[in-house]
């Protein structure tokens, strides 16, 4: 994907109970085709920005991550839900939620 001259590397996440390793990626394409699922988001590099976008939805996907504050999970409830975050001081920090995505 090329946007404004910036090339984004995309990781496809489609496996239940997967540990998503964001190393070297700026976009996670989240797909879900069956029953509700859980995944874990690994740590990023200091200053790394990451988008997770749900492009195929059949049931909720809950991602557990080292999120700043008391928030520990990101829930994707529909197609086109998105989360944008940055990794700072050992934690993912939420910059933007889109659609019905939620953090808890």
Task: Provide keyphrases for this structure.
mainly beta, globular, five-stranded mixed beta sheet, 12 strands, 104 residues
Textual characterization of the structure:
The structure is a single chain. The chain contains no helices and twelve strands. Strand 1 and strand 2 form a beta hairpin. The chain has 104 residues and is mainly beta. The mean pLDDT is 88. Helices cover 0% and strands 51% of the residues. The N and C termini lie far apart (30 Å). It has strands spanning 2-3, 6-7, 10-13, 19-20, 27-31, 37-41, 49-56, 61-64, 73-76, 82-88, 91-98, 102-103. Strands 3-5-7-10-11 form a five-stranded mixed sheet, with no helix packed on it. A five-stranded mixed sheet has the order 4-6-8-9-12, with no helix packed on it.
Structural class: mainly beta
Strand content: over 45%
Going across the biggest sheet, name each strand in turn. Answer: 3-5-7-10-11
Q: Low-confidence spans: pLDDT under 50, at least 5 residues? A: none
Mean of all residue-level pLDDT scores: 88
List the secondary-structure elements in sequence, H or E: EEEEEEEEEEEE
Spatial shape: globular
How many individual β-strands?
12
How far the N terminus sits from the C terminus, by CA atoms, comes to 30 Å
What characterizes the major β-sheet?
Answer: 5 strands, mixed
Give the % helix.
Answer: under 10%
Q: Please give the count of helices.
A: 0
Oligomeric state of this protein: single chain
Radius of gyration: 13 Å
């Amino acid at each position: 994907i090329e946007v404004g001259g910036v090339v984004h590397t995309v990781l496809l996440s489609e496996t239940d109970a997967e540990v998503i390793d964001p190393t070297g990626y700026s976009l996670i394409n989240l797909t879900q085709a069956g029953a509700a699922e859980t995944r874990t988001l690994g740590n990023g590099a200091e200053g790394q920005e990451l988008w997770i976008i749900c492009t195929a939805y059949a049931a909720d996907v809950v991602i557990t991550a080292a999120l700043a504050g008391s928030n520990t999970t990101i829930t994707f409830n529909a197609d086109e839900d998105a989360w944008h975050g940055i990794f700072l001081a050992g934690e993912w920090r939420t910059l933007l939620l889109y659609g019905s995505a939620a953090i808890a």
